Batch of 2 targets.
Target 1
Amino acid sequence: MDYVLPKLDYDYADLEPHYDAQTVELHHIKHHAGYVVGLNNAVTKLKEARESGDFSLVKHWEKELAFHGAGHELHSLFWKNLRKGSDENKAEGKVLEAIEKSFGSYDSFVNQFSSATATVEGSGWGVLASDADGNLQVFTVENHQKAFIPGYKILLVCDVWEHAYYLKYQNRRAEWIENFFKIINWEEVEKRL
Ligand SMILES: [Fe+2]
C-alpha cells in the first residue's frame, strides 16, 4: 500500500500572520509530498530487491527509507501540531503538568526548546517527546532521522529546515520558533501524551 500525503485540518491561510500561506502551501504540496514520493520509492525498491534477491543496493535504500519515512512522519505530526494562533497560546491541563514536572516551569521548557531548536546544525527539528513513564525531554533531530532516543513518543515537533520558514523569516530562525509557539495545537499534543 502506498503512503499518501495527508490533508491538512485547516486552510493554508489559517495560520497567518504567524505562518504565511505561501510557505504552508509549498511546504505541504512540494516538500512534504516529496518525502512521500521518496518513501514509496524506497519501499518499492526494497520489494524489488527481495523479489530478485539482489541486495547490492540495500544499504542505500534502507537509508532512503529512514530519511523519507522519518520526513513523512515528522511532517504529518507537524501539521497536526498547528492551529490558528494567538499571542496567549500556551500548554494547559495534563500537558502543562507534565511540562512543569519535567522542566520546572513552562517558561523553562520554552527557553530550552527554543534555544535547542535554534541551534540545530543545518536542517532538522526541535522535538518534545515522552518516555514510557511520562518524563519529557527536548531533542534536536538532525535531518529527519538522527539524534533521537528510540522508544520515546514524539509529542510536538518544530520544523527548522529552511524550507519551513525562509520565505517569511529568512535567516531569522529564532523569530520563526517564537511564532511557532503561537500556533501550537496543545490539545493535539495532549492526545499523544
Ligand atoms: Fe519541512
Note: The longest helix spans residues 21-52.
Target 2
Amino acid sequence: MFGLVNKGLEDMVCSQYGEATWTEIKSKAEVQIEAFISMDAYPDEITYRLVDATSAVIKMPTTDVLEAFGKYWLLFTAAEGFGSLMAMAGDNFPEFLQNLDNLHARMGLSFPELQPPSFLCSHLETASLKLHYYSERPGLTPMVVGMLKGLGEKFDTDVNIQLTASKAQGSDHQELSIAHKPKCPFKQFLHQNNN
Ligand code: HEM
C-alpha cells in the first residue's frame, strides 16, 4: 500500500504511545524502512506486519487496531492535505458513502498505482442503506467500520453497522447494513449551508 497508509499508522501510534513504541513495533515487524514516503507504493505485507506487531506491542486485538486506525485515518488524511478531497465527497453521511469510489478515483490522479477498494450503496432509504465493500485485500473490514464510525462523528450522525454478508460466508464481497440518523437535523442543515 502507499506509504501514506503506513505513515498514518505510525502517526496514530506515535501520538498515542510515543515514538519508542513505534520503534519497537517496526523492530517486531522486521521493517527496516527508516521513513515511509507517502507517494511510494510498498508491499501490502509491510502494512499487515506493522498492524500485527502494533497489536502485539500495545496488547490490543488486531481488529481493534484496524478499527482505531480507520477512525484516525480521517483526521490524518485531512491533516496531510486531503481535506478538500473529503469536502468534495459530500455534505452528509449517506451522500459521502455514495462518493467513496469518486474520492479514491480522484486520489488515483495523484497516485497512479493506487489499488483502491470499491464501494457500492444499495437499498437507500431515508435512515438506512447497504454498503457493499469490494477489495482484493483480506481482513480490512474493521478498518472500514472505524472509518464509518469516524464519518458518523464528522457528520454528527449516529450510525449502527452490521456485517450482513461476508467473503467468509461465501459472498464475493462484504456487505454492511447501516442505520444512520443525524443527531441534530437542524445542525446538519446549518453545516450543509455553511460549506
Ligand atoms: C480523504 C480521505 C481518503 C483518502 C485520501 C484515501 C486514500 C486511500 C489510499 C491512499 C489508500 C491505499 C490504497 C493503495 O495503497 O493502493 C486507501 C485505501 C483504503 N481506503 Fe481510502 N481514502 C480516504 C477515505 C476513505 C474512506 C472514508 C473509506 C471508507 C469508509 C476508505 C476506505 C479504504 C479502504 C478500506 C482501504 C484499504 C484498501 C482495500 O480495502 O483494498 N477510504 N485509501
Note: The chain has two domains: 3-60, 92-194.
